[in-house]
């Protein structure tokens, strides 16, 4: 019987378990979980602080998930080394676990730049895990002044999550706009305005030069006084185990479409992996939850001797801030086609007759139709793209296509 | 497994399926109570002045919404794609990934979806039962050709 080991206990690990079990119902699975809790929906930590969910509802899978799937979970145990010749994993508790197939689903870690005076700040937090959120929660108070360094997805979701529970929030970022990894200037300005209307202050194109207790000196000369500091500058893929095992690593652990690393019988999935981005046409780390699950599932099927390939991964995000929804997908290259309305901004990026990416603000109905155009590489001259720009609908397809889409089991 | 299919040649675009759907999941005693109200059905008539058709969840063999839900709120139970509305936080990731545009939020902003009326009092799809032109059917079909 094949023995499986998964390093990590997040979404990619769950995908991996479910992938393995779709092929092999019996082979024992050992999961190494650095965090001391069963798998939970990590992107929900800001919703938790906002009061939109609770610890029970945040469970990503039912309580009997591990038992039902024949998984042994080593809670609080961390992998320290992969020995690819003896096919075993060493742990921080002195364990040696042998594997026939291994999946590294070790996620990422917050990147904290070496700020001058950071050690003088007593209330500082990162915002990635549930433990981070619980620690931050215990520091919140109605009149607390919060400084968030980083205006990306993590920083802004954190701001939304705590907005009603603190006195003031200032967000600073080196970039000239919010959500700079997924939005262009005009779209970012719209989101920023919306957040400012909710009372959040911004210091953009600016960065912290030095911390001194409860004060931050910014490059622009501005001084920001704060009680709580949240560091949301970015994350880095946890690639160390594979690098030390001699495997190929770039920003993430390099994987092919089967999620194999360059180390035999070792796979990788999720935020630590760098796989092919179908819209970009090259390998990129796509640190988003759907990708983590699908990579994990693909890895699991292949680990168990099945055949699975994940070849059309793209970056995509759906997020709301104080009731305003924003979606983005793919890459923003080629010709830009725009549709605007009251509180609505939609941008589509078309290259070589194919949809490559989009940004939707305030109008997100049936957006999956757009996403499928990207992921399936649909030639736009085969659909009524002009109508699609105005509104996503299945009526943009030909009757023949629609019959194919809706006429049988899919 | 039986699923809901639409024959667009027969769809009149009358929107009655939307009302029957909203009513089936409303807990109301009388359909006319929905008159004049904004309804939040799980089936939607799409189309233009030439052609109309109703769209609801396909209950995919390999549902991307289940794999993408950031809350683990969508799962497959005996072939039916179901949502645990208590877990949903309304992020709309399922809307972003469903290639059929079959998911929409309910009145409370929480997602809802067609569960074939298996989890309400109807027991079989109300949209099908109430379709005056039999444009919507509930039947076994093979994989698409």
Can you describe this structure?
The complex is a heterodimer of chains A (410) and B (145). In chain A, the strands form 7 sheets. In chain A, strands 3-2-1-7-19 form a 5-stranded parallel beta sheet. A 5-stranded parallel beta sheet of chain A has the order 9-16-10-11-12. A 5-stranded antiparallel beta sheet of chain A has the order 22-23-26-25-24. In chain A, helix 1 packs parallel to helix 8 (289-303). Chain A has helices spanning 11-21, 45-50, 65-68, 130-139, 153-162, 185-197, 240-244, 289-303, 368-375, 385-390, 399-406, and strands at 4-7, 29-33, 71-75, 79-83, 88-91, 96-98, 101-104, 108-110, 124-126, 145-149, 168-173, 200-204, 208-212, 215-218, 223-225, 228-231, 235-237, 253-254, 266-268, 273-277, 282-284, 316-321, 324-330, 335-341, 344-351, 354-361. Chain A has 3 domains: 4-109 and 236-303, FAD/NAD(P)-binding domain, CATH 3.50.50; 118-231, FAD/NAD(P)-binding domain; 323-406, 2-Layer Sandwich (Enolase-like, domain 1), CATH 3.30.390.30. The mean pLDDT of chain A is 97. Chain A is globular, with a radius of gyration of 22 Å. Chain A starts with a strand and ends with a helix. With 410 residues, chain A is α/β, with parallel strands linked by helices. Chain B has 145 residues and is of the alpha+beta class. Chain B contains 4 helices and 8 strands, in the order E-H-E-E-H-E-E-H-E-E-H-E. Chain B has helices at residues 16-24, 64-68, 93-97, 126-129; strands at 2-6, 44-47, 52-55, 74-77, 80-83, 104-105, 111-112, 136-140. Chain B has 2 domains: 1-56 and 114-145, no CATH class; 59-113, Alpha-Beta Plaits (2-Layer Sandwich). In chain B, 47% of the residues are buried. In chain B, strands 1-8 form a two-stranded antiparallel sheet. In chain B, strands 2-3 form a two-stranded antiparallel sheet. Chain B is globular and about 40 Å long. Chains A and B meet through helix 8, strand 22, strand 23, helix 9 and helix 11 of A and strand 1, helix 2 and helix 3 of B.
């Amino acid at each position: 019987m094949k023995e499986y080991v998964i390093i990590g206990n997040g979404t990619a690990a769950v995908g991996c378990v479910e992938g393995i079990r779709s092929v092999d119902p019996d082979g024992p699975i050992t999961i190494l979980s650095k965090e001391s809790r069963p798998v939970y929906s990590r992107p929900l930590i800001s919703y938790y602080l906002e009061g939109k969910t609770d610890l029970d509802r945040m469970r990503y899978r039912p309580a009997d998930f591990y038992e039902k799937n024949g998984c042994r979970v080593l809670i609080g145990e961390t992998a320290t080394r992969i020995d690819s010749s003896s096919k075993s994993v060493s742990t921080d508790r002195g364990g040696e676990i042998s594997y026939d197939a291994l999946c590294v689903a070790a996620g990422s870690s917050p990147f904290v730049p070496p700020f001058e005076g950071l050690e003088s700040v007593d209330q500082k937090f990162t915002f990635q895990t549930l433990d981070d959120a619980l620690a931050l929660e215990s520091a919140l108070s109605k009149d607390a002044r919060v400084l968030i360094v980083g205006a990306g997805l993590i920083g802004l979701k954190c701001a939304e999550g705590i907005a009603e529970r603190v006195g003031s929030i200032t967000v600073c970022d080196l970039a000239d706009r919010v959500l700079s990894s997924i939005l262009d200037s005009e779209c970012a300005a719209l989101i920023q305005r919306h957040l400012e209307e909710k009372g959040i202050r911004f210091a953009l194109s600016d960065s912290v030069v030095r911390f001194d207790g409860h004060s931050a000196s910014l490059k622009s000369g501005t001084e920001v006084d704060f009680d709580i500091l949240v560091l949301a500058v970015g994350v880095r893929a946890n690639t160390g185990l594979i690098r030390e095992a001699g495997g190929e690593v770039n920003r993430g652990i390099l994987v092919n479409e089967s999620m194999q690393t360059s180390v035999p019988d070792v796979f990788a999935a999720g935020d630590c992996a760098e796989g092919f981005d179908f819209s970009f046409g090259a390998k990129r780390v796509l640190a988003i939850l759907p990708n983590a699950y699908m990579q994990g599932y693909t890895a699991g099927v292949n680990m168990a001797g099945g055949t699975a390939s994940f070849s059309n991964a793209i970056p995509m995000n759906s997020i709301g801030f104080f009731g305003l929804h924003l979606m983005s997908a793919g890459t923003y290259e080629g010709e830009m086609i725009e549709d605007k309305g009251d509180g609505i901004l939609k941008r589509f990026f078309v290259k070589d007759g194919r949809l490559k990416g989009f940004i939707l603000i305030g109008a997100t109905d049936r957006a999956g139709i757009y996403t499928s155009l990207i992921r399936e590489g649909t030639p736009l001259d085969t659909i009524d793209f002009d109508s699609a720009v105005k509104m996503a609908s299945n009526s943009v397809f030909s009757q023949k296509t629609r019959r194919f889409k809706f006429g049988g089991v899919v | 497994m039986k699923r809901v299919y639409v024959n667009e040649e027969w769809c009149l675009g009358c929107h009655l399926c939307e009302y029957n759907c909203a009513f089936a999941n409303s807990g109301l005693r009388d359909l006319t109570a929905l008159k004049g109200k904004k309804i939040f059905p799980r089936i939607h008539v799409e189309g233009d002045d030439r052609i109309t058709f109703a769209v609801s969840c396909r209950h995919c063999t390999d549902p991307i919404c289940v794999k993408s839900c950031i809350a683990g709120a969508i799962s497959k139970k005996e072939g039916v794609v179901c949502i645990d509305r208590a877990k949903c936080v309304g992020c709309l990731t399922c809307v972003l990934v469903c290639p059929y545009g079959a998911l929409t939020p309910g009145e409370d902003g929480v997602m809802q979806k067609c569960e074939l009326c298996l989890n309400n009092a109807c027991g079989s799809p109300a949209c099908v039962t109430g379709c005056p032109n039999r444009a919507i059917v509930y039947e076994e079909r093979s994989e698409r050709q």
